[in-house]
Amino acid sequence: MTKSEAMSQNIRGAPRTQVAITALLIVAGVLILFVPASDEGRVLVPISEGHGLSAVDGIGAALLAVGGTWLEVLVVRRLPYLALPPRALFGLGLLAGLGMGLLIASVFSGFFWWWAVGATALGVAVLVLVPLTARR
């Protein structure tokens, strides 16, 4: 038995559990970020006009970062098992990168509503890759 076969047999049920945990972390982080600004307290780190980081935002962002990074690691580790064609992988990577770029740009610049376009693009890529990661 090769090393990769031993690894896949040892972690057979692990991807589903890990994907579920990361999804919970991401949902908790997003829900905390949805707390109205009036209930968050004072701004600790001003980012741009209309944007700032409070302690509540910091907790939400930390949960989102941990969950998102963990999910990304799971997806990247499972990519060889997903058997997606190179063009599909390139397209999903491009869509996710564009979405993340628009999300970040909307915080640091004046085009506020572009976060919705970025979140949608990133969400589509995640909705394609995550079920495949959890299933196989």
TrEMBL record:
> Which organism is this protein's natural source?
Micromonospora inositola
Instruction: Write the protein's name.
Output: Uncharacterized protein
Highest taxon listed in the record's lineage: Bacteria
Keywords of this protein's UniProt record, alphabetized? Membrane, Transmembrane, Transmembrane helix
Annotated membrane-spanning segments are 20-38, 58-76, 88-108, 114-134
